[in-house]
Amino acid sequence: MFILANFLIEKGTVFSLALAVIGLVVAVILIRMVVSQSEGSDLMKKVAGSIQDGAKAYLRRQVVTISIISAGIAVVLFLLAQSGKVHSAMPVGFLIGAACSLVAGYIGMRVAVMANVRTTQAASESEGKALNVAFNGGAVTGLLVVGLALLSVGIFYLVMTGEGAGNDSKAVVDSLIGLALGASLISVFARLGGGIYTKAADVGADLVGKIEQGLDEDDPRNPATIADNVGDNVGDCAGMAADVFETYAVSLIGALLLGTLQAGADQAALIFPFLIGGIAIIGSIVGILWVNVRNGSASRLLMEGVFVASLLSAIAYWPITSKLFPEDLQIGENTYSATDLFGCALVGIVMTFAVVLITNYYTATKYRPVKKIARASQTGHATNIIAGLGVGNMATGLPVALICGAIWTSYSLGDLYGVSIAVMAMLALAGIIVSLDAFGPITDNAGGIAVMGELPAVVRERTDALDAVGNTMKAVTKGYAIASAGVAALVLFGSYFLELEAALGHVVEFSLKEPVVIIGMFIGGLLPFIFSALSMDAVGRAAGAVVTEVRRQISERPGIMEGKDEPEYARCVDIVTRSALREMVIPALLPVVTVVVVASIPALGYQALGGVLVGTIVTGLFVGLSMTAAGGAWDNAKKMIEDGAFGGKGSEAHAASITGDTVGDPYKDTSGPAINPMIKVTNIVAILAIPIFFHAEPKEGNEAAEEKAVQEKVIESGS
Questions:
Q1: CA-CA distance, 286 to 306, in Å (whole number)?
Q2: pLDDT tens for residues 23-49?
Q3: Helices 457-504 and 298-324: crossing angle, nearest 10°?
């Protein structure tokens, strides 16, 4: 056992990176398994090809737009590094974080658009086979996200450790802030751009196709139907992949930062977060295998996969924790045992499974909240909207109570470092969780291809059954991402004030008696509302352009509705592509500008900026949870009615449910999910602002010596 403990201390980080490589290898195997499946008829291949071309065209243009902005920020960071304001490696870290975030999303999306047509063909044989193809396609994205995130942070950390930073762990971790910023900023762009694209196309297609023309979902006569299917991939695959990649990377970097600031002399505190991530990848692989070999309903199998991955990870964490921390971890005046730190990891695992179950309750068709919205649709459009808003607001209660309990428990067991371990354990399971999310758009696309590919009705029935589960899974993963972001933001806030104390050389307090703190909280609390308003407006404008185009095509070419002419699908694809790329820039830069403005006003300073972070975390958490839950519930209420409840398709209840679903689209797929990376960007930019805007006044003599001693005590806390 001594050999194991020695191995973990000396090679623990490298070992965790080897586990990440295993995750990527399994992802490649899954890609080969998906690609080996039949693509079906020539007509199916043609439809799938149009979706693939649209998705590739959008992402190519998005990469160009984001690259220009990223290059500008990298130049600013380079200039700051040259002036000694930030670590010299920060610009490189920024570019690495941005590039890996884009790669994770791009590859995941490419596999998803290859899996959709194969899922349709599999559904012509059985629902079980379609489930496996779609889930394996989604699992590729899940394993890519965790594998690339762990590798990018780990390799950069190891390189910096051996490149002149010496034993200064603080300098090494500081260099990682750039990587976190790059991943977070790209995530906001990907989430916003993809969300605006997918919901502008979806809303436009529904308003004219379903409500005005009475067309079914994915009817090939609808000029916006290809754009709608493309949007599922760029929003829910590429967008979610970039989102969870940055949350994972930021949480890992936050754990390293707190480990350095609170337990800088204990190397085990820096190795532990890496091992948590590596072990959970193996747990996720087993969970993915479980779903493939078992038979049963899609919803039950996917939940079982999460449970198996969580259980195996929890079992494996104990021997690793006990050997890594044979002696208590010293943080300040307190000591924490291996059992305490293992308890922190368990908190994260329990929180993951609990958030999944809670969100599933509020968004699945078999539970009361969705049935309530569907029932309310019988009395009109307004009552559907009212019921949906009520469900969304109520859905914040249990997750927030859970988050409060997780924070309190993990803090009691390990201080802020313990909270960061709980967050890392939660995000470490992203391999299996993101698999659930990417499963959704694959099954959604599969249904569209079944209709446009003129397959028998039974195929669409099978894909619709999987799509309903996929809608719930998408809501579940968004709730998971936002809940984890709330706790991760607390870790970043803790890093903010500890970094401040290290920079200023004295204890920092954020007292509510100080007006500037209250002012900062108001500004921060306002930020998620302005951010979501801008993104909702963007969807509205882009959807309006799609509606105009669809109406134009139908009125000018009557043969489209008669099935004699083929719509100009590319026109709608081009409209939403240009709109999404244009509209995403201002909301994405809003948190950066807000932090810089507050930090640069001397009358506000670091206390007001601390208030901004708290306000953003609190209101952002509620807004994000409410929007994603309401949107998912509205969507499944519509599907419930389309399956025959309360009058079925064509009824007044169905028309009302379409209105609710249309309102919920930007809620659950644009504004709500994008708040998650927005919170993180705000916190990371605030940490980055510390050496630029805030520093201690130069002192002389004994006063300077005393301040230096305080600063060293803060940095090495407990050593």
A1: 10
A2: 999 999 999 999 898 888 888 888 888
A3: 30
Tokens read off for 440:
């959704």
Name the 3-class secondary structure at 335: strand
300: amino acid identity, one letter: R
Give the Cα separation of 295 and 283 in Å (integer). Answer: 20
Closest to 435 (Cα-Cα) out of 12, 136, 19, 30: 136
Q: In the numeric block, which tokens belong to residue 312?
A: 């195996």
pLDDT of residue 352: 85
Q: pTM of the predicted model, to two decimals?
A: 0.84
Question: Residue 334 pairs with which residues in a beta bridge?
Answer: 331
Which residues of the chain register pLDDT less than 50? 164-167, 701-704, 707-708, 710-711, 713-719
Give the separation between CA 719 and CA 619, rounded to whole angstroms. Answer: 37
CA gap 674, 678 in Å, rounded: 6
3-class state of residue 330 by DSSP? strand
For residue 345, give the nearest of 251, 486, 433 by alpha carbon.
Answer: 251
Backbone φ/ψ region at 649: left (φ over 0), alpha (ψ -120 to 50), beta: beta
Q: What are the respective helix, strand and coil percentages of the chain, to the nearest 5?
A: 85, 0, 15
Which has the closest alpha carbon to 248: 519, 434, 430?
A: 430
Q: What is the pLDDT of residues 189-228, one digit of tens each?
A: 888 888 888 888 888 887 887 778 777 777 788 888 888 8
- Cα dihedral sign for 310, 316, 322, 328? negative
Contacts of 533 (CB under 8 A, 6+ apart): none
Which residue bears the tokens 């490298």? 14
Other CB atoms within a 10 A radius of the CB of residue 694 amount to 16
For residue 330, the cross-strand partners are: 335
Backbone φ and ψ for 137, nearest 5 degrees, come out as -60, -40
How far from chain centre, in Å, is Cα 312?
23
Going by C-beta distance under 8 Å and a sequence separation of 6 or more, which residues neighbour residue 372? 387, 391
Question: Token pair for residue 549?
Answer: 């185009």
Rounded Cα–Cα distance for residues 673 and 195 (Å): 9
> What number of CA atoms fall less than 13 Å from residue 716's CA on the CB side?
10
- Collapse the DSSP code of 334 into the 3-class scheme (helix H, G, I; strand E, B; otherwise coil) and give the result: strand
**For residues 702 and 704, what is the distance between their CA atoms, to the nearest angstrom?**
5
- CA dist list (Å): 525 to 254, 610, 611, 620, 625: 23, 12, 9, 7, 15
Kindly report the number of other CB atoms within 10 A of residue 382's CB atom: 12
CA pair distance 600, 615, nearest whole angstrom: 19
Q: How would you label 17-29 residue by residue, b for 16+ Cβ within 10 Å and e otherwise?
A: bebbebbbebbee
Q: What's at 43, amino acid-wise?
A: L
What does DSSP assign to residue 222?
-
Element (H, E) at 549: helix 515-556
Please, which residues have CB within 8 angstroms of residue 487's CB and are 6 or more apart in sequence? 351, 403, 406, 407, 419, 422, 423, 426
CB 111 within 8 A of CB 137: yes
At 365 the three-state DSSP class reads coil
pLDDT at 425: 92
Per-residue model confidence (pLDDT) at position 455: 87
| pLDDT value for 39 | 86
Question: Which of 504, 508, 484, 501 is closest to 624 using CA atoms?
Answer: 484
Please give the structure tokens belonging to residue 330.
């010293």
Q: Which residue has 């600063």 as its token pair?
A: 711
CB 670 within 8 A of CB 192: yes
Confirm if 97 and 180 have CB atoms less than 8 A apart: yes
**Dist CA 148 CA 52 (whole Å):** 24
Q: How many Cβ atoms from other residues are within 10 Å of residue 241's Cβ? A: 33
Phi, psi angle pair for 330, to nearest 5°: -95, 120
Count helices and strands (H / E) in the chain: 22, 2
Euclidean distance between CA atoms 153 and 495, whole angstroms: 18
What confidence score (pLDDT) does residue 488 get?
78
The two three-digit tokens of residue 670, written as one number: 């644009």
User: What is the C-alpha separation between 203 and 579, in angstroms, rounded?
Assistant: 14
